[in-house]
Amino acid sequence: MPDLPDALVLARIQFAFTVSFHFLFPAITIGLASYLAVLEALWLRTGKGVYMDLFKYWVKIFALIFAMGVVSGIVMSYQFGTNWAVFSDRAGPIIGPLMAYEVLTAFFLEAGFLGVMLFGMNRVGKGLHFTATLMVAFGTFVSAFWILSVNSWMQTPTGFATNAVGQFIPAGSWLDIIFNPSFPYRLAHTVSAAYLTTAFIVGGVGAWHLLRNHETPQARTMFSMAMWMAAIVAPLQIVIGDMHGLNTLEHQPAKVMAMEGHFDSHPEGAPLILFGIPNSAESRVDHAIEIPKLSSLILKHDLDAPLAGLDTIPPENRPPVGIVFWSFRVMVGLGFLMAGLGVLSLLARWRGKLFEWRGLHRFALVMGPSGLVAVLAGWITTEVGRQPWTVYGLMRTAESASPLAAPAVAASLIAFVVIYFLVFGAGVLYILKLMSKPPEPHEPAPPRTPVRTAGITPAAALTAGANTGAAE
Asked: Could you give the dihedral angle defined by the CA atoms of residues 243, 244, 246 and 247, in that order, rounded to the nearest 10 degrees?
């Protein structure tokens, strides 16, 4: 019988599973909330019903995805106490306040205005409803701000000291903790990735309806808006990603070495390895397809610039090369495909064939889920590339886990997998069902909900009583 995974491995698998599942939902809602705000702003400015039809179409999908994101996020917070209690104890004085700020600002902001945005279209004025939509969109950004600040501090910790019991505590200004060296780059890269994720989902849905000859103004408008985002944001994301990579090279060189597959140092210019099979046991990349010195040009802007390799890193401090190597290539490859679709859409628009070019529509349909795959690949690159550290260079993952037995962690992992696929699988299928229906003129709004828990308002009760008395 092969050896069964120990508790640490199972805890890592559990957190990887839940965070990957959760991350998909905010990746959509961050961009979709802003898209809804743009649609409502265009409706208010132009008075064109097509924008309100699209707003009502996508707001129902947003509500479902938002709810699934909240539920899946709550589960993750419990794991800090169950599976990662040592990490929570040592890093709590830093991580705890930042997570609390996220709840007190972003979550309360979203919760306070979400109901108005979803159900208040016919109950409040246009200005107040638009304000609610803007606040929900702003709340999703603020949430990303705090969560990414926490993660970035774990990647590039600054502004802290260690007390007598080994806890990380603030030292000086909280601004040094919040705006740590990698945070601005990670925030820009992640938020723009969320916008691209939404754009390609919207574009894929629009392409689906155009291919099915649902060539309504609503389908045309959503496809056109999505292609503008692809054409503008995808090339910009490549530039932001390059800047983020240079920052990572400065603060986490081992991660970049794993991404590039550089087991050996290159004193006179490093090649760019396009593809290959990383062989960590032999410290080489088998069957490598590479371009000489191009990695030095990208990372150092000099063909002959020396680049250190993993041979300069102690073996116990090296990240898993194979996973990081391939996840990075999936992310980059999809990024260039996104930019290619954006360029093709510009060509089609210039030729007046944006809504007639079937090949473009098929390409957009296939690329619909590409943003979700890309953000997962990027997240895997970031998190696995940080290993074997929880707090980079200071606290190892092996030191962070709770003293649990493997069967206990395995039982909760199995429960998570079964429940997640049943509950969230049903939710995703329902969302796909909504997307399969084309947006229509005078798209119905979300159903009206009762103001009171009892299901009836006092005014409605009085009216019902008066009507009953009149009937008698």
From this structure: 120
Buried b (16+ CB within 10 A) or exposed e, 5-43: eebbebbbbbbeebbebbbbbbbbbbbbbbbbbebbebb
- Spatial distance between the Cα atoms of 369 and 200, rounded to a whole number of angstroms: 7
DSSP string for residues in 79-114: HHHHT-HHHHHHHHHHHHHHHHHIIIIIIHHHHHHH
Name the token pair of 157.
């910790």
∠ CA 168-173-179, nearest 5°, is 85
Q: Quick check: pTM over 0.90?
A: no
N- to C-terminal Cα separation, the chain: 80
Tokens, residue 274: 């396009």
CA–CA separation, 413 vs 405, rounded Å?
Answer: 13
Q: Angle, nearest 10°, between helix axes 183-211 and 7-46?
A: 70
Please choose, from the candidates 225, 194, 170, the residue with its C-alpha nearest in 3D space to the C-alpha of residue 57.
Answer: 225
* Chain centre to alpha carbon of residue 416: 20
Could you read off the pLDDT tens digit of each residue along the chain, which spans 472 residues?
344 468 888 989 888 888 888 888 889 999 999 999 999 999 999 988 899 999 999 999 999 998 888 888 888 878 888 888 899 999 989 998 998 888 888 888 888 898 888 888 888 888 899 999 999 999 999 999 999 999 999 999 999 999 988 899 999 889 999 999 999 999 999 999 999 999 999 999 999 999 987 778 888 999 999 999 999 999 999 999 999 999 999 999 999 999 998 988 888 888 888 888 988 888 888 888 889 888 888 888 888 888 898 989 998 999 999 999 999 999 999 999 999 999 999 999 999 888 889 999 999 999 999 999 999 999 999 999 999 999 998 999 989 888 888 888 888 889 888 988 888 888 889 999 988 888 877 656 555 544 443 344 444 444 444 444 444 4
Q: What is the CA radius of gyration of the chain?
A: 25
Strand partners, 61: none
